[in-house]
Amino acid sequence: TKGIKPLVAGNWKMNGTAASLPEVRSIGNGFMRGLDAECDAVLCVPATLLTRAHQILSATPVKCGGQDCHARPSGAHTGDISAEMLKDAGASHVIVGHSERRADHGESDAVVRAKAEAAWLAGLVAIVCVGETRAERDAGETLAVLSRQLAGSVPEGASSKNTIIAYEPVWAIGTGLTPSSDDVAAAHAHLRAELGRIVGEAAATTRILYGGSVKPSNAVELLGIENVDGALVGGASLKAGDFLGIAEAY
Ligand code: PEP
Fold this sequence. Notes:
Layout: E1 7-11, H1 21-32, E2 40-44, H2 50-57, E3 63-66, H3 83-88, E4 93-96, H4 99-104, H5 109-121, E5 125-130, H6 134-138, H7 142-153, E6 163-167, H8 181-199, E7 208-211, H9 216-223, E8 230-233, H10 240-247
Parallel strand pairs: 1-2, 1-8, 2-3, 3-4, 4-5, 5-6, 6-7, 7-8
The protein binds phosphoenolpyruvate.
């Protein structure tokens, strides 16, 4: 979109140990070789790797992110991680409302919204995920689902500085399937318009990423679609060559 620098975001999900740090280093080095002129990058690693990934990436243009945060700043929530903790460990971004969290942990739009607000409070950029299931698409409900999720998950006060939207059709995640370019264009145009109802003019400059089976071979087509301001990349972000190959689409 005119006036928006694209962002390629990686989501390592529950993958990665110390053995994966060379991959982090390769991604950082790749962006130092000029890719950052065309697009920004953030790598959302497991929380256990954040500090080490940040140490490696702080000398590069690539930023670090978490994959989820608790809605509360601290307290009796065993096993959870607050936005402030992610920030302290080196994160600048955090994914909230990923479909795997919505499905595996029953996260509602209201919970996702509270997490986005918690992220802001800690000074993190919230990457808010929305997307329809296969059944919803087959029922012709895609745009209605996106309207509902966006209205429920994006807090008032969202701006291009504190929020990124990620459109991720659930059926396209990790499946190798992608929507047609026309369907991606329709979803992103719809999200831009709906975002305008929540944040007004800020919608024009807020990034809307596409996510779901993005890889180097389809990146040029997907990232060239109107209103697509970058990608959220799962599987293909685990290998530096693939992640950099996607960024090279710009
Ligand atoms: C994701 O998990 O956000 C994702 C888009 O996964 P994949 O790229 O593997 O489909």
